Amino acid sequence: MQYITQLSDFTYQGPCAVTLGKFDGMHRGHQRLIRTIRKYSDENTKSVVFAFDMKQFLLNKGITRKMLMTNEERKKHMEKYVDYLIECPFTEEFRKIEPEDFIKDILVDKLHAKYIVIGADYHFGRDKRGDANTLSRYAKKYGYHVDVITKKKSDDRIISSSYIRETLAGGDLELANELLGYPYTVYGRVEHGQKLGRTLGFPTMNIVPDIEKLLPKKGVYNCKVKIDGVWYKGIGNVGMKPTVTNDGRVLVEVHVLDYDAEAYEKEIEIKFLTFERGEKKFSSVEELKEQVDKDIASGKLYFEKA
Ligand SMILES: Cc1cc2nc3c(=O)[nH]c(=O)nc-3n(C[C@H](O)[C@H](O)[C@H](O)COP(=O)(O)O)c2cc1C
Ligand SMILES: Nc1ncnc2c1ncn2[C@@H]1O[C@H](COP(=O)(O)OP(=O)(O)OP(=O)(O)O)[C@@H](O)[C@H]1O
């Protein structure tokens, strides 16, 4: 896959099957679109995800938003699915572009779109005036085919990145995973903690996730952890460790079963499988240890049954 952050770097001259949107999380609705562009792609026709990066645009309006996926994570996630991932910063210029100009200048002239795939409610161009009808109206003139994909629902509610962000933040990890179609994942480099876990009998790998990454609600989770390409079982905690620290930093840490080598500086991947309990401030380290021992025992039982 080629990862492109400047439209001018896109130089492929052959036909493309293009899908459009923001694509935070690559949830089950997004996956419908990806499957459709893949269906059209072959040796000659390339599959292209054209994703608008809203970060700077929102920041300019004073809005900061935690994301289901950092750009780096989305890149890793998409690697084996499509030929090109274009991450295009959304700017005032884009906001003002006439829908037909967007179609002609970007989709047709720049990306050589022969197939355009969007969700049923997708809007683009000046005042969001462009939509599926606009794309269909110009299809003949510019020589492309449009696929408008029905919005995928779960229990009668349309799946969207906003819905999943809301679900995760509210603590329903299992529903978030169901909407995503895969377990929610956090990546990070293992950092040095206070090294207290080791003396308490449960060494943990500490990671400080990207500032823009949306973390699951604070608490204890059964997880899968990938270290050096190998998957392990783990019991993780998302939170501030209020029993032992008061620096206010929210971290992710995980006690990995059947792993006893050093992992500092390694890049690990943590998949969150089940939410077990909320994080608590204990009145002593002994009480904390007692509870974490229980969490680990119950995690082991979970993995035996899984
Ligand atoms: C499964 C698990 C559950 C945890 N639950 C809590 C908790 O409820 N409250 C808390 O203050 N810390 C909790 N922790 C964090 C511990 O306080 C922390 O792992 C320990 O102090 C070691 O920290 P260190 O890695 O910086 O040495 C938990 C850790 C794990 C692995
Ligand atoms: N549930 C869905 N089913 C099918 N297509 C979808 C679904 N959700 C979004 N899409 C389509 O996928 C593309 C990317 O969607 P986009 O990420 O912009 O929207 P979203 O997932 O609804 O996120 P947000 O909640 O942030 O608006 C768009 O073409 C959109 O219409």
From TrEMBL:
Species in which this protein is naturally found: Hespellia stercorisuis DSM 15480
Q: Which UniProt keywords apply?
A: ATP-binding, FAD, Flavoprotein, FMN, Kinase, Multifunctional enzyme, Nucleotide-binding, Nucleotidyltransferase, Transferase
| Enzyme Commission numbers on file | 2.7.1.26, 2.7.7.2
What name appears for this protein in its UniProt entry? Answer: Riboflavin biosynthesis protein
Q: Where in the numbering of this chain does the Riboflavin kinase domain appear?
A: 179-304
Q: Which GO terms describe its molecular function?
A: ATP binding; FMN adenylyltransferase activity; riboflavin kinase activity
Q: Which family does it belong to?
A: Belongs to the ribF family.
Q: Note whether Ribosomal protein occurs among the keywords.
A: no
Is the keyword Transferase in the record? Answer: yes
GO BP: FAD biosynthetic process; FMN biosynthetic process; riboflavin biosynthetic process
Listed Pfam families: FAD_syn, Flavokinase
NCBIfam families cross-referenced by the UniProt entry: cyt_tran_rel (TIGR00125), PRK05627.1-5 (NF004162), ribF (TIGR00083)
Question: Which pathway?
Answer: Cofactor biosynthesis; FAD biosynthesis; FAD from FMN: step 1/1; Cofactor biosynthesis; FMN biosynthesis; FMN from riboflavin (ATP route): step 1/1
Q: Which reaction does it catalyse?
A: FMN + ATP + H(+) = FAD + diphosphate; riboflavin + ATP = FMN + ADP + H(+)
